């Protein structure tokens, strides 16, 4: 029972954290590739 709760707790933390890291990397790609995107 404790192992299941521990797995659920880790999943609860890891999924949003992973999503945030993915979004950050995706949005920072132009900074490192030299491309400039202008938003209007």
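^ structure tokens above, recovered residues below v
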């Amino acid at each position: 029972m404790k192992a299941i709760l521990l797995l659920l707790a880790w999943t609860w933390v890891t999924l949003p954290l992973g999503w945030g890291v993915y979004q950050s990397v995706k949005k920072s790609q132009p900074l490192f590739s030299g491309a400039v995107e202008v938003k209007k």
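The chain has a mean pLDDT of 89.
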